[in-house]
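Sanity check

After download, print the first record. It should look like this:
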Amino acid sequence: MPDLILLDLGLPDIDGVEILKQFRAWSEIPIIIVSARGHEREKVEALDLGADDYVTKPFGTHELLARIRTALRHSKKADAGPPVSVFSIGDLRLDYERRTVSLTDKEIHLTPIEYKILVLLSRHAGRVLTHDFIIRQVWGPYANENQTLRVNMANIRRKLERNPAAPRYIITEVGVGYRMAEE
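Expected structure tokens:
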């Protein structure tokens, strides 16, 4: 998943405005438009459709880098929310700052993808996350990773649950998705 997207509106196959609309349908990733189109109407349209900034070609490298830093800074502030550094439920504990997972004070090794899935579920504890939502957040918008998600969930359950067939922490909502239990 990218931290930021530089999007040129003049693409050979599809208009960049269409791509902007598609991205905004599923993501809040900062998007900076770089384009030779300099008319005010086009700038306003792109900004109204969700672009975070618009830079007209030609532009200087230093200006572009400054705009990138600004967009990243603003996105971090928007994501900030209250600084929760630890999630715990029962014997399960996730320390977001240290990137550790422990069960009854014993550290559990997770792959990066497994950790990302577990963090996503824990940040939305009590809410059902659909298969599509989890896939988009972990693998991106164009992934078709249904089987990979099932395999990863089975691996996570094997590592966390006493009885993976009767999960205590991650509940399957049949045909919909998964839900992290709440205390």
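If your output differs, re-run the checksum step. Summary of this record's structure: The mean pLDDT is 87.
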